[in-house]
Amino acid sequence: MGIRARLLVLAVGIAVPLALVGAADLRRVWQSNRTQLDESLKQRAELAAVAFERWLDAQRQPLATLAAEANEQSLRSPQLADHLRHTVQTRPYWIDAHLVGQNGESLVAQPQGHEPPPPALTEHLLSEVQGRASWALATDRTRDEARPVFALAVPAGEGAVMARVDGAAINELFSDIEMSERAVIAVFDSESRRLYRRQTTSEPIDPTVNGMPLIAALGTGRTTVVEMESPYDGIRRVYGLARAGDTNCVVSVGIPSSTLYEPARRQLNRHVMFSLIALACAVLAAMLIARGIVRPVLRLRRATQEIGAGDLAARAPVSGGGEIGELGAAFNRMAAQIAEREERLKELDRLKSEFVSSVSHELRTPLTTIKTLTRVLQRGKLSEDEQREYLDTIAAECDRQIDLVLNLLDMSRIESGAYKIARTRVDPVEVVTACARVEARAAEVRELTLETDVLPNVPDILTDREALRRVVCSLVENAIKYTPEGGRITIKAGAAREPGSVEITVKDTGVGILSEDVPFVFEKFFRGRPAPSGRSMKDAGSVPDYGDAPGVGLGLYLAHRIVSQLGGSISVESPPSGESAGTAVTVRLPIWHGDGGEGEKSEEATNVKALTGS
Question: For residues 141 and 149, is the Cβ–Cβ distance under 8 A?
Answer without folding.
Answer: yes
